[in-house]
Amino acid sequence: MSVVDDPLAGEAILGGEPRRSRSRALGRTLAGALLPLGTLVVLVALWQLATRIFGWEPFLVPSPVDVGDALVEQRGYLPRQFLATFVETLEGYGLSILVGIPLAVAIAYSRLLERCLYPILLAVNAIPKIAIAPILVLWMGFGQGPKVVMVFLVCFFPIVLATATGLKATPSELIELTRSLSASQLQTFVKVRFPAAMPHIFVGLKVAIALAVIGAVIGEFVGASEGLGYVIINSGQNANTSLAFASMVLLGVMSIGLFYALVGLERLLVPWAGEEQR
User: Which residues lie below 8 Å from residue 242, measured CB to CB, with a gap of 6+?
Assistant: First the structure.
């Protein structure tokens, strides 16, 4: 009996391709998770080996075991500092989105505004943020405000630049199509320009989220009474390098978690961007 005459064989053939696609997707997901994890294990092992070979003192370069011990010993203290830095990071990052995206839309729609604001934005972005931090502490005190503003300053420019670039990069044929359908400017923006700019916007958001944690730590370095940056400064002054490294490990975990949360949100909201990259 031929495949054409056998309906079960036909269904098997038709169902085989989706199963293979799911298998490939599962394989890519596992590889994406296992490869970084394997690399991390190798790096930690090399770190442990180097501390043994060179005989580094723990107050100079702690071993991974020393860092793990510090994490366990300070399991009641470090989570509170982690939460303080995490909240500052999210607040400043959210503020940069609330201000940056509307400003980018205005810049994309107004050439005059672009010419007026772009040089100023470039100048502000070029100022070393560590130089601004003491002034912010002087103006706003030692509370949460200077850290939130510092995060805002480091995240603002990438979001504005990426959003404005994406809005300007809308394919001209789509714009012509909306004009031929007599769509209003608002309809064109909501239905065409903003969705088309979403991949660019998420590029800016992902760059900014990596900088957000750095901004929070810079603010905590200059003046703070809590946060992982504060812990690192105090640990360095007390030669407790293991605790400083433990804080840096938590900062790395925070950055990775926030970045991949944003990647997941991108896949949910902009699924076509992932298809275009394959």
Answer: 58, 62, 66, 67, 69, 70
